[in-house]
Amino acid sequence: MKRILSNLTFQVLFAILLGVVVGIYFKGFAPTAQVISKTFISLITMLIAPIIFFTIVLGIAGMSDMKKVGRVGGKALLYFEIVTTLALVIGVTVANLVKPGEGFINTHAPVDAAKLADYQKAASQMKIMDFLAHIVPGNIFESFAKGEILQILFFAILFGFGLSRLGASGQSVIATFEKLSRVFFNIMKIVMRVAPLGAFGGMAYTISTYGIKALQPLGLLMASVYITMALFIFVVLNLIAYFFKFSLWQYLKHIKEEILIVLGTSSSESALPGMMEKLEKFGCSKSVVGLVIPAGYSFNLDGTTIYLSMSVIFLAQVFNRHLSIEEQLTIIGILMITSKGAAGVTGSGFIVLTSTLAATKIIPVEGVAILLGVDRFMSEARAITNVIGNGVATIVVAKSEGEFRAPAP
Questions:
Q1: Which domain holds residue 222?
Q2: What's the total number of domains in the chain?
Q3: Which residues contact 179 (CB under 8 A, 6 or more apart)?
Q4: Does the predicted model carry a pTM greater than 0.85?
Q5: Alpha helices by DSSP H, 245-324
Q6: How far apart are CA 309 and CA 315, in angstroms?
Q7: Spatial separation of the C-alpha atoms in residues 313 and 91, rounded to whole Å
Q8: In 10 A of CB 117, how many CB atoms?
Q9: Residue 409 is assigned to a structural domain of this protein
Q10: I need a surface site. Which of 2, 53, 130, 269 has the fewest CB within 10 A?
Q11: Could you tell me how far CA 187 lies from the centroid of its own chain?
Q12: CATH, residue 256
């Protein structure tokens, strides 16, 4: 019994259930719960930048073949594009079959005009070239301070290349970085002991603020999104795992704590440091993990793309707007671009959705307001699918490069 109580998975799961109960019966606890959740996410966020930096630098500096670095990055980006496009197609197909928006009365959904205006403004400012230019940091210290993952990734790759060119004289720097990397991972282990508190706060805040009843008007859409993401994980990703000869179930079991933390906090970033460490233990090389995982957090958002594609079709059905095959293909094409452009932006799901509707001019942009009330309840599914998908991508790239060593049973 003592062993079960001290198990992190059990603690997080119990904390989530307790958070649901507290959220239902103690509405006034919401502000405190939000502080608890935000504090835990901040604890994780403060470790993300240094862990990514040291992991990437050490991985690249340890590679004797620099062409291999480019090859790994190229394979990762190709995989991301193929799988996220597949996710978009699946989302559109399911939404067309289930038709969750038919007969929906949009007065059921409360409209938050201020939030809607914020998303419309952010969407109007989205430009793909600006996003690409933003990858190059003007001030790397500012990038670390703001937690700009892509900018840190870019700088770390250059730093790793530069360090590798020092040869033997750079070994002292590498040794120091390895020690610093271990320090940050040790800090992460300490932080993870309070993960149950973070999961409790996140779930209590969500339930007490939005309430279980908020699910009812959009229940069919929510059920469709959850079922589609489950099918994506257990069918599509399972087939990928089968093709590359590893067990999806063993992988999911290996990262169960990270999945539960994401469930409780609704934040995929809360699992990033843990995922990097777990994937190394699962058998992926440090260099592949360091390159693929951070890039995946910006370019491989499987859950987000499923949600976006289904939301567009849902809104079309709400407004009785029949979309032709050509119009749906156009929307998929636009989402393939805009979903990358909002990478790492808070509220990116709504920003991408708003910008897509504005670009197509097929569905009223104001329709986004219908989804505001229940978005929080779907964010867990999006985040979990994103995290699982990024791990699968890392294993696939590692295996294709011969950089995977199965852990001893």
A1: 2-400
A2: 1
A3: none
A4: no
A5: 248-254, 256-265, 272-282, 286-299, 302-318
A6: 10
A7: 9
A8: 10
A9: no
A10: 2
A11: 22
A12: 1.10.3860.10
